Structure formats: structure tokens, C-alpha cells
């Protein structure tokens, strides 16, 4: 499970996946069985070992109650990942969404400029709608194009506040091919100011002014390309 809390990465990892991690990737290592979890220990890239449900509750209370969180990312290693994921979801109202990374015939990626940042098209799921249907509908509505759905790329979770409610949005991401851009235009009522087809280099520049979750999606796309599981980028 990959969650972006205030645009910072929190990753939940099972003990089985722990062996694939490298100690050099972390600045701070905390063993939840041996030491208490306090805010001033959360610096840089943090890994928390042997985390229990009590550890998870403590961590989320700490970051929700403080404006002084300075970590760059947190990886939490747990024994029972499904149980922990359910626990985290219960802290929030879960909203489901889907979106896409869209390519044209020149293998350029469609980026949108919204609310002062570069973003990817996505939106909330309608009732009785499958994630693939949501992804295709939202991309076509927001961009005024027609698309063909391809491979699933990844799933991200990110948090935000709506009034007094704490929201956890799950977004499933898909690779798409644009089949018709003759009527392409930004959906201005959704705050989209402009759309732009970008080369790989241009995407990397745009990501400087974007969200961590969007950078993560593009990174996952690159990893799939390196594994020869997709054909582009």
C-alpha cells in the first residue's frame, strides 16, 4: 500500500517484502519493539520495523496532530499487511477514483495544468462503475478526447480534508492510447487551465511542479517499461 499524506510518501510493506529493501535507502531506522515512536525521530527517509496496530495508530496520531512533520518518506514494515491496511482505511472516509497516462501516436504524454500544478487526468468513480470505466470516462470528460484503455500501471492512495472530514482517495491508474484528439480541450469547470502533449524530457521538467503521487505514477510507468511490460516511455 502506497499512501501520500500531505504529499509525502508512506509505504506499508509486509515482512516478506522486507528482505528486498536496502538499509542504505533510509536515513533513520526505528524498531517499534525496542523504542517508542516520537515525532523528532521522523527525519529524512524513515523505516519503521516490527510495526503493530498500536504503532500504526500512534504514527497517524502524531502526523495528524503536528504541523512540524519533516520526514521525506516513511516505510512501515508489518506482519499482517491486510489487517494494517484495513486499520488505516478506517481512519478516513474512502473515496474511489481512477485515471490515466495517455499517449498519442508520437508517444507523447498528455499532461494537464490545474490549480497551479501539472497533473494527470483522473476522477471519482460513479455508482456501479468499474475502475476501468471510470478511468476512461474521466479522461475523456476532462480532456475532450477519445481513448483506448491499455495496461494497469499502479494504485495510489492520498489524503486530503474536505471541511472537517478526512478523506483517503484510492486511484487506479491505467496506460491509455489517444484515438481521437480532434475535440481536445480542457474541462474548465474542473479547474483545468490547459492540456499539453509532452515528450519524456518535458514530462520530467513538468514533474518538478507537480505532486509526489503523480511523480510516483510516472516512475511506475518507467519501471514497467524497463521490465518490458509496456511498450512506451
> Secondary-structure element sequence?
EEHEEHEHEEEEHEEEHH
Taking all Cα atoms into account, the compactness measure Rg is: 19 Å
As residue ranges, the low-confidence spans are none
What is the residue-mean pLDDT, rounded to a whole number? 92
- Helical fraction: 25-40%
List the strand order in the largest sheet: 3-4-5-2-1-10-11-6-9
CATH class of the largest domain: Alpha Beta
What would you say this structure looks like, in words?
The chain contains 6 helices and 12 strands. It has 233 residues and is an alpha/beta fold. α2 runs parallel beside α3. The two termini are 25 Å apart. The relative contact order is 0.16.
Q: Can you lay out the helices and strands and say which pair or pack?
A:
Blueprint: E1 2-5, E2 8-14, H1 15-18, E3 28-31, E4 43-51, H2 53-65, E5 70-78, H3 81-89, E6 93-103, E7 109-114, E8 117-119, E9 122-124, H4 131-143, E10 146-162, E11 165-180, E12 192-198, H5 200-206, H6 212-226
Parallel strand pairs: 1-10, 2-5, 3-4, 4-5, 6-11
Antiparallel strand pairs: 1-2, 6-9, 7-8, 7-12, 10-11
In short:
By secondary structure, the protein is of the alpha/beta class. The protein has helices at residues 15-18, 53-65, 81-89, 131-143, 200-206, 212-226, and strands spanning 2-5, 8-14, 28-31, 43-51, 70-78, 93-103, 109-114, 117-119, 122-124, 146-162, 165-180, 192-198.
Amino acid at each position: 500500500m502506497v499512501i501520500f499524506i500531505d504529499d509525502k510518501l508512506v509505504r506499508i510493506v509486509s515482512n516478506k517484502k522486507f528482505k528486498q529493501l536496502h538499509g542504505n535507502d533510509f536515513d533513520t531506522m526505528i524498531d517499534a519493539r525496542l523504542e517508542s515512536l516520537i515525532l523528532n525521530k521522523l527525519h529524512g527517509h524513515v523505516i519503521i520495523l516490527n510495526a503493530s496496530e498500536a504503532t500504526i495508530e500512534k504514527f497517524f496520531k502524531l502526523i495528524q496532530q503536528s504541523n512540524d512533520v519533516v520526514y521525506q518518506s516513511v516505510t512501515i514494515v508489518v506482519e499482517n499487511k491486510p489487517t494494517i491496511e484495513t486499520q488505516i482505511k478506517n481512519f478516513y472516509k474512502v473515496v474511489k477514483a481512477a485515471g490515466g497516462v495517455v499517449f498519442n501516436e508520437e508517444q507523447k504524454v498528455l499532461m494537464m495544468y490545474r490549480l497551479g500544478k501539472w497533473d494527470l487526468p483522473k476522477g471519482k468513480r460513479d455508482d456501479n462503475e468499474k475502475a476501468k470505466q471510470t478511468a476512461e470516462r474521466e479522461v475523456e470528460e476532462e480532456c475532450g478526447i477519445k481513448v483506448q484503455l491499455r495496461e494497469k500501471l499502479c494504485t495510489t492512495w492520498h489524503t486530503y480534508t474536505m471541511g472537517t472530514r478526512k478523506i483517503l482517495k484510492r486511484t487506479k491508474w491505467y496506460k491509455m492510447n489517444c484515438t481521437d484528439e480532434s475535440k481536445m480541450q480542457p474541462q474548465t469547470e474542473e479547474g483545468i487551465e490547459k492540456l499539453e502533449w509532452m515528450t519524456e524530457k518535458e514530462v520530467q521538467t513538468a514533474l518538478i511542479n507537480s505532486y509526489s503521487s503523480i511523480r510516483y505514477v510516472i516512475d511506475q510507468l518507467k519501471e514497467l517499461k524497463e521490465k518490458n511490460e509496456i511498450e512506451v516511455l
